[in-house]
Amino acid sequence: MLTWEELENACISCEKCPISKNRTNVVVGDGNKNAKLVFVGEAPGEEEDKQGKPFVGRAGKFLDLALTSLELSREKDFYICNILKCRPPNNRVPTEAEAQNCLPFLRAQIKLISPKIIVCLGATAMKYILGKDLKITQDRGKWFEKGGFWIMATYHPAALLRDPGKREDFYRDLKSVKQKLEKLI
Q1: Is 22:49 a contact under the CB 8 Å cutoff?
Q2: What residues contact 176, with CB distance under 8 A and at least 6 apart?
Q3: Where does the Uracil-DNA glycosylase-like domain start and stop, copy by copy (predicted)?
Q4: Per CATH, which fold does 4-184 belong to?
């Protein structure tokens, strides 16, 4: 098993995808590396690429606000990362090859953290963690037990900025995550 330092160095030196040539920063993750809760998104956006941290743009601020309202913080309660560690051009959806190149890094992160709960933020994270047969609009908010983890998918915070009508479901999902976390710890 890799150490955190080895994992971060492997991510930083990775050049498996052409997108690595245009990155400003590799975005490994942020938060409590011993948390029982992990959020996984799709890929870094423009602001994340600039700062080298996940979920720091508009969608990240929205997510932080929602989680703060539930008394959950990055520093103590959760770790947050993405399927991809580099920003795809124009924030497009990652290709299958890009995702497959980065998934070993995500698996190593999950092993190091050893969470009890994984929350997939959006359809891309859901696809690679729970499987291609599920649909975010149908299956968000449902709990799945897989590989020793409790896993739920919900909308990506960026989707809520585009479609505020999904916010109520999103908050309900986050409340369910908090309840599950309280039961498990």
Answers
A1: no
A2: 141, 143, 152
A3: 28-175
A4: Uracil-DNA Glycosylase, subunit E (3.40.470)
Query: And the tokens for 151?
Result: 């896993």
DSSP at 171: H
Distance of alpha carbon 17 from alpha carbon 88, whole angstroms: 10
Q: Give pLDDT tens digits for 135-145.
A: 999 999 999 99
User: Running DSSP on this structure, what letter comes out for residue 93?
Assistant: P
| CA–CA distance, 59 with 167 (Å, rounded to integer) | 12
Q: Do 164 and 178 touch, CB atoms closer than 8 A?
A: no
Sheet holding 37-41, edge to edge: 30-31, 79-82, 37-41, 117-121, 149-154, 143-146
User: Is the dihedral angle over the CA atoms 175, 35, 147, 133 positive or is it negative?
Assistant: positive
Residue boundaries of the structural domains of the chain: 4-184
pLDDT tens profile 61-120? 999 999 999 999 999 999 999 999 999 999 999 999 999 999 999 999 999 999 999 999
- Give the burial class of 107: count Cβ atoms within 10 A of its Cβ; 0-12 exposed, 13-18 middle, 19 or more buried: exposed
Q: Rounded to 5 degrees, what are φ and ψ at 2?
A: -70, 150
Cα–Cα separations (whole angstroms), residue 185 to 42, 153, 167, 177: 27, 20, 27, 12
